[in-house]
Write a structure and sequence with these properties.
The radius of gyration is 16 Å and the shape is globular. It has a 7-stranded antiparallel beta sheet with strand order 1-2-11-8-13-6-3, with helices on one face. It is an alpha+beta fold and 215 residues long. It has helices spanning 3-10, 32-45, 96-108; strands at 13-18, 21-25, 62-67, 70-74, 77-81, 118-124, 130-133, 145-151, 154-158, 168-172, 177-180, 189-191, 206-212. β1 and β2 (21-25) form a beta hairpin. The longest helix has 14 residues, at 32-45. The protein contains 3 helices and 13 strands, in the order αββαβββαββββββββ. The chain has one domain (17-212): Alpha-ketoglutarate-dependent dioxygenase AlkB-like (Jelly Rolls, Sandwich). Bound molecules: N-(carboxycarbonyl)-S-(naphthalen-2-ylmethyl)-L-cysteine and fe (iii) ion. Fe (iii) ion (FE) binds next to loops.
Length: 215
């Protein structure tokens, strides 16, 4: 790799997608190996599973968590819980690399001292999607949510504060980090069905980390 390539590779594009929503393109790339290793350790103890919505639908995205609490869904509703309902064990603790990445990304977007207590880990296989929703099971909407995309790229839908507001599509690629705060924090959003593909590190899947301050 020559000098030019290495400069291009480390170039940091910060793009405001919408008021409060800052894309740090490729921000997580230098940490890709450590992040993937950490996810492997988490899923060894808390495997990916398909949650059921309160309406009784099995989600196409598989999920797990790390941190003090994890997001769970079942027939009784959505909540953050200290324990994995499948094992009864506390969720795996949040790796230092995760907490540090989230803190640095939020700081770069103007949110100082972001200390998430939950990290929801989503796994998309081809065809998996996330319908338009708001994230409002957290108590503190002043804190942003930080998302990290790994593996295959996805088309992300970003709307407004009402479900029927027009949506804009963004491509989220491996290593991209987005900080969702301010007036973006309660915006409707979703993910289009994942297209088939092959990522050199993660194969035929996309993994998304979302860091949340729940209290
Ligand atoms: C905008 N995850 O876990 S990440 C979710 O790619 C979720 O797995 C998607 O939506 C995924 O809840 C999208 C981007 C994202 C995450 C949270 C947000 C965008 C957001 C919260 C508020 C506004
Ligand atoms: Fe969400």
């Amino acid at each position: 790799m020559d000098l030019f390539d290495s400069i291009v590779e480390s170039e940091q594009r910060d793009v405001q997608l919408a008021p409060g929503a800052m894309l740090l393109a490729g921000f997580a790339r230098p940490l890709e190996a450590a992040l993937i290793e950490a996810v492997a350790a988490i899923i060894a103890r808390a495997p990916f599973r398909h949650l059921v919505t309160p309406g009784g639908h099995r989600m196409s995205v598989a999920m797990t968590n790390c941190g003090r609490v994890g997001w769970v869904s079942d027939r009784t509703g959505y909540r953050y819980d200290t324990n994995d309902p499948d094992s009864g064990l506390p969720w795996p603790s949040m790796p230092e690399t995760f907490a540090d990445l989230a803190l640095r990304a939020a700081d770069g977007a103007g949110f100082a001292d972001f200390r998430p207590d939950a990290c929801l880990i989503n796994r998309y296989e081809p065809g998996a999607k996330l319908s338009l929703h708001q994230d409002k099971d957290e108590l503190d909407f002043n804190a942003p949510i930080v998302s990290v995309s790994l593996g295959l790229p996805a088309t992300f839908l970003f709307g407004g504060l009402n479900r029927n507001d027009k949506t804009t599509r963004y491509r989220l690629a491996h290593g991209d980090v987005v900080v969702w705060g301010g007036s973006a924090r309660l915006a409707y959003h979703g993910v289009m069905p994942l297209a088939d593909g092959e990522h050199p590190l993660l194969g035929n899947q996309r993994i998304n980390l979302t860091f949340r301050k729940t209290r």
